[in-house]
Amino acid sequence: MRIPVFGTVIDERYVRHRYRATSMGSVAGGLAAVGLFWYRLTVNGIWSWDLLAVAITIAAVKWAFMTWYHFTD
Description:
This protein is mostly helical. It has one domain. The chain is 78% helix and 11% strand. It has two helices and two strands. It has helices spanning 12-44, 49-72; strands at 2-5, 8-11. It is elongated. The model has no long low-confidence stretch (mean pLDDT 82).
């Protein structure tokens, strides 16, 4: 499969690399949010509900898309 974009042609390897990079970025963001939440909880004793919400949102969206692609692909 070849995708024309702005006069150049992008093949499926580019698209797969982009998907992988986005997936790894979301995992890294989720782990960073969980790590910062855990640090603030253990060191300062503060529950950072905003960081917990970010981590849960990242995980929920990732699982929702994994489920969607599993059943529709």
